[in-house]
Design a protein that fits this description.
Elements: H1 3-53, H2 56-99, H3 105-120, E1 125-129, H4 137-143, E2 148-152, E3 160-165, E4 170-175, H5 176-190
Parallel strand pairs: 1-2
Antiparallel strand pairs: 1-3, 3-4
Length: 196
């Protein structure tokens, strides 16, 4: 896939992630507001009862209970955020796998191999590809002038190429798996859905 298409694809992932972030942020704010209203209503009822009874002990218990409920709410929000993030990236992975079934994918695979060849030069190397991509082995070998071994790697679930040049001690990873994983890190760092 041309670099321009890759950029467009990555921009689309970022745009989708940003839209999901905004939606999640709204949901988090709404959930926090609802929880706060519930906690305030409960605290008000508890306070009135405590004033009538004059029991300091109940005040301490209510405070501890409110803290526990707040902590449980934060935990629930955190788990929901993690689940939503996982869902976003699961859908992105599905779209990338669908991309590997298009006519554009073989060109993207070759360009990834050419980028690795640029690092390794004429040194012999091993290229690791997804089992589904073994049919491209000869084309990939030809990029390296026959100085490459091709092996299926079950760790590559989406597609792309990872190369290892033993003589130089270099690993070059051009897999879609690693590129999506890098986006996951970016999303986690830049997603401002805080659980306060």
């Amino acid at each position: 896939m041309p670099k321009n298409n890759t950029d467009k694809f990555l921009k689309a992932i970022k745009k989708y992630a940003k839209a999901q972030k905004n939606a999640l942020k709204g949901e988090v704010i709404q959930l926090k507001t609802e929880r706060l209203k519930e906690a305030e209503a409960k605290a008000k009822r508890d306070s009135q009862r405590l004033l009538k009874d004059g029991l300091r002990e109940k005040t301490n218990k209510s405070t501890a209970l409110l803290a526990k409920e707040t902590q449980e709410s934060r935990k629930k929000l955190f788990l929901e955020r993690a689940a939503m993030t996982e869902e976003i990236f699961s859908k992105a992975e599905e779209k990338l796998i669908a991309f590997t079934e298009t006519g554009e994918y073989p060109d993207k695979l070759k360009k990834s191999a050419e980028a690795i060849h640029g690092l390794f030069g004429e040194e012999s190397c091993t290229l690791y590809i997804c089992e589904r991509d073994l049919s491209y082995s000869e084309e990939l070998k030809s990029i390296f002038g026959g100085n490459a071994e091709i092996e299926a790697d079950k760790k590559i679930k989406i597609g792309g190429v990872r190369g290892f040049c033993e003589s130089r001690g270099i690993i070059a990873d051009e897999t879609l798996d690693s590129k999506l994983n890098a986006q996951h890190g970016w999303f986690t760092e830049n997603c401002t859905l805080s659980v306060e």
